């Protein structure tokens, strides 16, 4: 599904953000991506979504060589990827339904399709009864569930959750992780970038640890660790 082959990214040639990374993520996997700030996690994600191009190496999603995509081809490619942000990025003047529907409207999808898909996704994230509420009327956990609904409305192959629980308390964190696990069980590949040790340890999924631009640890059914000691 996702392959990084000898990938390097240098903003400063004396200090690469990623250094000769080889990585393979299978279709349908749930991967936790961990590492200290500045380790290279954000760069890896930016390369995967086509926001940056590798200095060296090749990145492939399915049969698409991401580094060779032209700017005009990126919007179509990015429909295959859903992204969930730490700070939600909701539109404050639109209600829950409208925030999710907007992701389809900007793509020119017909209203009949929007009216069918949005309620389905809101049911999945448990917000059907709150579809008329505005972001200011929601809890942090509810806002993040709206963000997840918006991210999966296109039925993406891959869902990237970048610190999705960073602004949430323990109870809401557990709800969001449970929802991400449910989405993964439905067939979507999930990449969770997080600093939350308890979340990673609870999941016991594959854990990839990044340090100084290199993958120093990659283990199945693992726990949070920032060292390469097993």
Helix/strand layout:
Elements: E1 2-9, E2 18-25, E3 30-34, H1 41-48, E4 56-61, E5 64-65, H2 74-78, E6 81-84, H3 96-105, H4 111-125, H5 140-152, E7 158-162, H6 170-185, E8 189-193, H7 197-203, E9 206-211, E10 214-219
Parallel strand pairs: 3-8, 3-9, 6-7, 7-8
Antiparallel strand pairs: 1-2, 1-4, 4-5, 9-10
Could you describe the 3D structure shown?
- This protein is of the alpha/beta class.
- The protein has helices at residues 41-48, 74-78, 96-105, 111-125, 140-152, 170-185, 197-203, and strands at residues 2-9, 18-25, 30-34, 56-61, 64-65, 81-84, 158-162, 189-193, 206-211, 214-219.
- Helix 6 (170-185) links the parallel strand 7 and strand 8 (189-193).
- The two termini are 27 Å apart.
- The model has no long low-confidence stretch (mean pLDDT 92).
């Amino acid at each position: 599904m996702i392959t990084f082959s000898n990938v390097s990214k240098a903003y400063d040639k004396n200090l690469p953000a990623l250094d000769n990374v080889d990585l393979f993520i299978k279709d349908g996997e749930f991967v936790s991506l961990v590492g200290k700030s500045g380790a290279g996690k954000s760069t890896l994600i930016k390369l995967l979504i086509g926001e940056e191009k590798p200095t060296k190496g090749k990145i492939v999603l399915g049969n698409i060589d991401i580094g060779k995509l032209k700017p005009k081809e990126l919007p179509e490619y990015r429909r295959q990827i859903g992204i969930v942000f730490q700070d939600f990025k909701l539109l404050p003047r639109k209600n829950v339904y409208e925030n999710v529907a907007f992701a389809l409207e900007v793509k020119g999808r017909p209203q009949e399709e929007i009216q069918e898909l949005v309620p389905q996704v809101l049911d999945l994230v448990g917000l059907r009864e709150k579809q008329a509420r505005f972001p200011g009327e929601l809890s942090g956990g509810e806002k993040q569930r709206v963000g997840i609904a918006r991210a999966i409305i296109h039925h993406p192959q891959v869902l990237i959750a970048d610190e999705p629980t960073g602004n949430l308390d323990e109870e809401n964190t557990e709800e969001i992780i449970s929802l991400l696990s449910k989405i993964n069980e439905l067939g979507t590949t999930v990449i969770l970038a997080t600093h939350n040790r308890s979340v990673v340890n609870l999941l016991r999924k594959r854990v990839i640890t990044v340090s100084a631009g290199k993958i120093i640890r990659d283990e199945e059914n693992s726990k949070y660790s920032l060292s390469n000691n097993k």
